[in-house]
Amino acid sequence: MSKKLDPRVIRTRQLLRDALVELIDEQGYEKITVQDITQRATLNRATFYLHYRDKLDLLYQSSEEILHELVSSIRPPFKEKTDFDLLRSYDQPHREFVYLFDQVAINSKLYKVYLTEKNIPYFATGLKKIIIDFVSSGIHFMEPDDGKLTVPRDMAIRFYAAAFLEVIVWWLENDMPYTSKFMATQLMRITIKGPYIDNPFFK
Amino acid sequence: MSKKLDPRVIRTRQLLRDALVELIDEQGYEKITVQDITQRATLNRATFYLHYRDKLDLLYQSSEEILHELVSSIRPPFKEKTDFDLLRSYDQPHREFVYLFDQVAINSKLYKVYLTEKNIPYFATGLKKIIIDFVSSGIHFMEPDDGKLTVPRDMAIRFYAAAFLEVIVWWLENDMPYTSKFMATQLMRITIKGPYIDNPFFK
DNA sequence: TGTATTATCGACACTGTGTCGTTAATATAA
DNA sequence: TTATATTAACGACACAGTGTCGATAATACA
What we know:
Number of domains of chain A: 2
Helix content of chain A: 55-70%
Oligomer: homodimer
């Protein structure tokens, strides 16, 4: 399948990818030129085109690689727990949530830049798709019957997926002030219990 | 304050703004050039620079105008309801939520393009800020005591703000299949009751 | 060491940008 | 209606960055 890569190629691509993250952090994605990237990576501009079509292609490939690692680490979700475990776990961190935050922490520099810098194509979209799948399987596992959901299933999935992603961004923006385990617990709490401890609306 | 504008100026700017929305819809924001915009607007390219600094400036000013209208329409939120109203309203649409969806519907073409096309600078960010303020005042009105929230206040605000914004995007992507009133009701339900009707985790 | 692969380098045409100065069109007020 | 100020149109310019060449140098690996 994949032929062995020349070490120089690996080195060159890594230099370009690192340069991209740095430059986005410093100047924002739009302002960056291919010239800037190759200059920062101490490579000739023509070399860039031996590996990537353009600036966007470099971003895509970098993103794909990181997101693929994430998917591998949180799959398969929601397959092993018993109902008993579930009932006890509303205030405990789910294993899969912890893995999610752990994986973000491992590449926190890239995640922070790609998620908090504005106008970065693809990455946030790709991550949101992953989280939508994650939330979808979670809600389906908890409640496969549409009639027992408070709102349409699609709406609920999008609602919580976007909310989870935003909490990840919040965590990164604040330089990860809590542990992955704590964050996973919080997500579980707010999802199951809502925002208020003393909720006057429950029978 | 604001001097009277030449009708030609109003016309020119409107032509440019409309052309921008159309072209983003057709080709995506990044591919568009100032040349494209002025060509679509049947104006000379130099005319563009009499009104806007560059493509981004045109986008910013268009966005600001629309978002300002939105803020005006949902302010002041959460000031008049009594506790009694609140207790009854968990399954009723809040007036402010309805206004929010109504305002989106009025400019649905622009909202849809600016929110669903990827890599549009500023607009989603600006709207998210508005919704964060909205959610923040709502949660504060319902529960000013941090100790009675299930998670840290900042986290909860970001959680629900992102979720609400995503539901708006979902609504637009599906060409507004429900009324504003229905959507507002759904948001209230999922926020207060969570995703599941039969929630086994409540005492 | 020999050979294939990759990187470097300088150069090229091309596209889009931002800004001129000049001329034409048009809104508004006298 | 006419005068005048404002704005638009137009063509031209230097400039940035792009993507691609062909020739040459450096390097990995067998």
